Sequence to fold (260 residues):
Amino acid sequence: MSRVQAKKNLGQHFLKDAGIAAKIAATLTGQGYTAVLEIGPGMGILTGYLLERGFEDFRVIEIDNESVHYLHEHFPQLEKIITGDFLSMDLDSYFPDNLAIIGNFPYNISTQIFFKVLKHREKVVEITGMLQKEVAERICAGPGSKTYGILSVLLQAYYTTEYLFTVPEHVFSPPPRVKSGVIRLIRNDVKDLDCDEVLFVRVVKACFNQRRKTLRNSVRAAFELSREDYHEFGLRPEQLSVAQFVQLTRWIDENRIKSG
Fold:
């Protein structure tokens, strides 16, 4: 098998620049884990450089059977190829300890990948990879930015995020219509937020779902409150840091009218 046919329904755009692949492989720090999982290796341009790094437990997961056959044929030293969908993968059954995740993530599921990482944040201590530039920038954006949003706040509550570099369209086959961005997230020291974490997610989503409105209006629409004198209600959601969202969540928890 000489090549894998890119499949539109899987969001496949194969990187063909070896220099960029090497640069992405080098983004993993190797700190705090011995296991690495690559998502969607395709034809293995990134896989080869990751193998060279000699991680103790290196695995790939690939949903495309044609790619799986290609990897078996061209990377006989790659012993652990998981055929399946990362989004439905039981990480705990494969990785008992900490791991890092890396990949040239398919654009159509990149946001879902990061939401799954959030659910396994005590296990996934580092994630690096390439995704649509717009999403990459959103993840790493800080308060005050137009791209700062739900994913920014939820990920930055538990990870230190860093936008590393931009990748142009022409280094892919077929080329996507947008630029890509490479980012790195490293687990921070936060074990638990100083608030109800389920409510925190609800508050962040409620606020950004009406991001043009002030917090007073978006919170009032989502929660029944016994009072409405929170000192930052005049701000818009993109102005709040993670710590301020934690404070807002605590206030809502103390002042919402709970049914039943």
In short: The chain has a mean pLDDT of 92. Residues 8-187 form a domain with the Rossmann fold fold (CATH 3.40.50.150).
